[in-house]
## 1
Amino acid sequence: MASNLNVLSIGASRNIGYFSAVRLLEKGATVTFLLRSPSAFDSDTIIQKFVKSGHARLVKGDASNEADTERAWKEAGAVDAVIFSVGTYPKFQLSQGFVQTPVNLVTQCFLNVLCTIPTYPDAPQPKIIVISSTGLTPSAHAALPCLLKPLYGVVLAAPHKDKIGMERAIAHCAGWAWDPTADGPVSEEEILGEGWTERKGLPAPGSLKRMLVVRPALLTDGKCAADEGKGKGYRVSETELGGYTISRKDTAHFVVDALTRRWDEFENKRVNVAY
């Protein structure tokens, strides 16, 4: 059940973060959104309903700014869980191909989240769910359907480089092994920043508990098949699935299901989700 959950949502103005937040709100949770433009929800009747009830809190700020992120933690109060779904779309430039600006947006936003985690004297460390992507590691790329390999290798190369940086930060703080050959090489100065392991507030190696990394297949805007009970639904596995797609709404379904009902099954794991 989610009725007593207090959730901080970073990157939830749309897509997976948004759909996850709505599902949680409808289950009775309280969700604090960190938003660059809270006005984005001005005409959103669903969110406004929960704003009026006090279950949705809108905090103006940018996760790429550490002070804004720290303020979001404070305004949220004692947080039970964080859903981090920051992402961006690459743009095509004739001289460089598909690029992302800044190149390390996701990684730096997530480092800000890590460096500002409060210590709750009477509560456990918050559960943290991050949205990553399939196809990041060499083995994951090899398992992709052949038709998707050019898309992942060219169009999505820049955002995936950023996601690898985020996962590297998670592995460091959670105490997970990291093999650059198997898990993916990281340009630490470019993506993580020089001296990133010495940043003030960064959890010590092995001290970050209660993590879940979700790696969805190619995302679509389709319906939530899990809600409709059609077909076999989506698949979840720590091993590569080789699937083509999954909808953002079904990914959100898994996020909320894992958080509210199946946490013991998925805690401290990296899982793939696909049809």
Note: The domain at 6-274 is CATH 3.40.50.720 (Rossmann fold).
## 2
Amino acid sequence: MIPELSYGYILLKRDLTLAYRHRSELANPLLFFIIVISLFPLGISPESKDLQVIAPGVIWVAALLAAMLSLDSLFRSDFEDGTLEQLALSSHSLPLFVIAKVLAHWLITGLPLILLAPFLGILLFLPDTTLLTLIATLSLGTPILSLVGAVGVALTVGLRRGGILLSLLVLPLYIPVLIFAAGAVNEAARGFPVAGQLYFLGALLTLSLTLAPLATAAALRISLS
């Protein structure tokens, strides 16, 4: 068990190092996230009451699309240079490789979104009492986006133009996360309890952590065959 964990740590460190060497690419999802949210006050209304109503949905849709931007490259480089095939043929666990890749993707994309979201929530006049709920929903929801998205990426990694197909496969699966996460922030803004929505997101995260690495590993084997 310890050698496998060491192997997973090496894979995680490798992906983070490669990402650090391409820092300009790391900024793209974050800039997209900021720009999309900043455009809504200009395109709809600068009035605080109007922005408070749409803020939860806007922030979550922007976070979802920002996460989608970097998904296509999750396994692409490893597939093109043959690393993925060598890992699949090795004695090491392929689901562990998937977990390391997904964790690296979340650290690079999901975690910065969580850190930026409260400031953008203030830009959209979200009440201070809802910011903690916003952080909680993003903390539970963004790992689900990475885990579920990895399954779609694994199915389309062998296709030359799999970006559109990836969106068609993954976006419908993101809908429950979007509904309950944005709904929790809306309910918090109205002063209602949000434990039910957070429990549901926690259940989805547990289910994704359990099944998504196995499904992604199976999909990668299908793409390599």
Note: The chain has nine helices and no strands.
